[in-house]
Amino acid sequence: MQTVWLSSAEWFAVLRIGLGLWWLESWRHKDKKQWFTGGGITWAGGIAEKHRWPFVRLGFDRVVRPRPRLMAYVVAYAELALGLGLIAGFLTPIALAGGLVLNLIYLVLMIHDWAEQGQNLMMALISAVAFFGMSWQAWSLDDALGLFL
């Protein structure tokens, strides 16, 4: 495909790296002390309690609420791993699929908040485009190591 300035594979890599930076910012801006002492999960629990869809409340109560500390670490370090993996282009298809799932979980939890919906929808769209555009074909460790050809 003819493009301006970069090849199509490089443009997909730009999207992948930008998405990785977005995930890294999601991790960076968290108040880690408050997050890891239960603040983030408590906040999400308050949203889940008032959620209009009963399956969200039920899922949160069964999976997240019994393990607030573990889930706080899972969420924070998943965001960090996604950011670093996408920037470096390491295990990129796995990171893109994982990020898409995490964005969809966030989207469902925050369905009433238009600002959050926009961010999560945009990140999910970028994940899908970067996945189907095989964004690991340029500027990535995956490409350098010959993974996911």
From TrEMBL:
Q: Name one Pfam family in it.
A: DoxX
The answer, when asked if Membrane is one of the entry's keywords, is yes
The main place the protein resides is membrane
The UniProt transmembrane annotation reads 94-114, 121-139
KW Repeat (keyword) present: no
Q: How does it sit in the membrane?
A: Multi-pass membrane protein
Q: Cite a GO CC annotation.
A: membrane
Q: Which InterPro entries does the protein's record reference?
A: DoxX
Q: Which keywords does this chain's UniProt record carry?
A: Membrane, Transmembrane, Transmembrane helix
Which compartments does it reside in?
Membrane
Protein name (record): DoxX family membrane protein
Q: Which organism is it from?
A: Streptomyces sporangiiformans
Taxonomy, top ranks, is: Bacteria, Bacillati, Actinomycetota, Actinomycetes, Kitasatosporales
